[in-house]
Amino acid sequence: MDFQMSHSPVQNAALTAREQQQRQGEEFADPLTHWKQQQSALPPLTSAARQQLLVEWNDTAVTYPEDKCIHHLFEEQVQRTPDAVALVYEDRQLTYQQLNQRANQLAHYLQRLGVGPEVPVGLCVERSIEMITGVLAILKAGGAYIPLDPTNPKERLSFILEDTHAPILLTQKHVAEGLSGQSAQLVFLDQDGISQESEENPTSSVRPENAAYIIYTSGTTGTPKGVVIQHTSLVNYSEFARMTYALQPDDRVLQFATISFDASAEEIYPCLTSGATLVLRTSSMIDSVSLFLQKCQEWALTVLDLPTAFWHELTRKIAGDAAMLPSSVRLVIIGGERAQPELVAQWQSHVGQRVQLVNTYGPTEATIVATMYRVPTSAEADSVQREVPIGRPIANAQVYVLDQHLHVVPIGVSGELYIGGVGLAREYFNRPDLTAEKFISHPFRAESGARLYKTGDMVRYLPTGDLEFLGRIDHQVKIRGYRIELGEIEAVLEQHPSVQEAVVIVREDVPGDKRLVAYVVPYREQTLTSSELRDSAQKQLPNYMIPTAFVSMKALPLSSNGKLDRRALPAPEMTRRELDETFVAPTLAVHQQLAHIWEELLDVRPVGIRDNFFELGGHSLLAVRLVDQIEQVWGKRISATTLLAGPTIEQLASVLVQSEDTNSGTASAHAKSGNSRHPFSSVRTLLKSLVKPTQHIETGNRK
Prior knowledge:
Layout: H1 9-13, H2 17-27, H3 31-38, H4 47-54, H5 70-80, E1 85-89, E2 92-95, H6 96-112, E3 120-124, H7 129-141, E4 144-148, H8 154-164, E5 168-171, H9 173-176, E6 185-188, E7 211-217, E8 225-230, H10 231-244, E9 252-255, H11 263-272, E10 277-280, H12 289-298, E11 303-307, H13 308-320, E12 331-335, H14 341-351, E13 356-361, E14 371-375, E15 392-393, E16 397-402, E17 415-421, E18 427-428, H15 432-438, E19 439-441, E20 451-461, E21 467-472, E22 476-479, E23 482-485, H16 486-493, E24 499-510, E25 513-522, H17 530-538, E26 549-552, H18 589-602, H19 620-634, H20 640-645, H21 649-658, H22 664-670, H23 684-688
Parallel strand pairs: 1-10, 3-4, 3-5, 5-6, 9-10, 11-12, 12-13, 25-26
Antiparallel strand pairs: 1-2, 7-8, 8-18, 13-14, 14-15, 16-17, 17-20, 19-20, 20-21, 22-23, 24-25
Helix pairs in contact: 6-7, 10-11, 13-14, 18-19, 18-21
């Protein structure tokens, strides 16, 4: 990222993010300070330029049903297409009328328990027909749903339920086993009595300004924070997406994201308010890219909404192995992190014009998406930017690039992105101080209550009117689509009784492979191990927030002014330590072949046949590549269950050699021998995750 000012907007706009990052590293120890110092040198804006930036490029006003709630739009669609298939999961499906009736019965039941406007209801379920039924039922009852990932640590789930004072938790019996001790009343989705309720649409006093959902995101204080999204914001986005993506009843939309992330709302509501079919992915669908493509073909999917990190893997497969995107697919939406330009070029070359690729951007606080960019097809490739823009504001949204004094900066000059409009979250739940800090009065609009959200993202306008993302002004990061506050990880690590101080940074030693590294200073005469720190962090943090490596230091490096010098933090050095005790060199041909694949994927050498894939730095996206490469070499497809149950070369070799059938039962049998310890609390953790990374190596890469 580059915060250097330029008096030549066009020249500045031509710089790539990589060039900017290089300049930053060479010239500035503190780019944010430099950015602030240079603001006074900016040339004044002409009235025409100011009009363009403030008004013309923010002319996004369109009408939408602002008097309705999101479930009202679904109910209207039920009236239009009652017999159309609304929902598919594995071998089950429901029509719009059937889904509506089931949701109505549960909604009536919830209303009897006191659910109504502004009543938060927890929803902790696995991906299933019941998950969608539960979401709709809570909305129909008038409440606000709090989506919870059952694979997250119990302490994190408990905090969210206690923070919201949710009186009711909708769940499944097998999931509830890990939720004991909650004060919320448990309601099982298959509970007796629900099926006796009325199938008619319930009535409630819920209004568009009431909360629709509360999604918790990473927080800087060591605990997550709840973002409250109103019905009117969700309705606005759903209508925008439905119209912009031209969703029709013959579309089949993949539901990919975990319910606890707002990307799931992007998949669910535009689909179910347009008469299309929502197809829930299975856990095994993302075992490998080849299996993903196979399922897309079998299910005749037309719209894919994918995290950018997974789309990168998909593109590599299409470009490298001549794999084909099914002919049914017409639209692919990506978002969550920077799209690598070289992979965009490969996509354009191999996929061509028949599939529209859309790059989106938006924090949870702006209701899913704030800006979008239609990536040119291969026929228009000469017009593609070297960096893929995040585009222009969506309907009824405004975006502003401002300096630290809230002054508009010229085209091509970096500044902080502020977002306004209908999509803004109402508040952070029970956090008026943070709400006041992040949601400020709108400096360019006179209407009462108008606000801007301070994103913390550095961007700049391109001459085309599109925005280009440059980076962060703080220590929030995005890894594989997950938004992470490094301060939250640091706060959790410092709760360990032996840790005096902790700092977490993101390292990208291999382009495109970002990893969290923790640097800890133990109290004098205290000894810390990576396993101890990892196990402690796991109790409070989800897997994607667990550092890859832990580095113990006597003291953290400081700059000349006494501040932490993050650039002086050393790269992790790999020592075998615990791994040395079990190192066994590969001798059999199958062991050697697997070891070679692992070494290339993990950038770790040497690899022993009893080393754990995940403890060496493996994560779910690398697991996808591993499964694909095994299929290419041996012609056999293993599942994620197989890898989780037996994450060593020795165990995988047994599966490959002894049986043509690589189902999870076989893998489980083989996993009983050797070092089968893996860093997941259950096999479901990887299978249910979007692209969740796992705990990895002890102290870094070894070469």
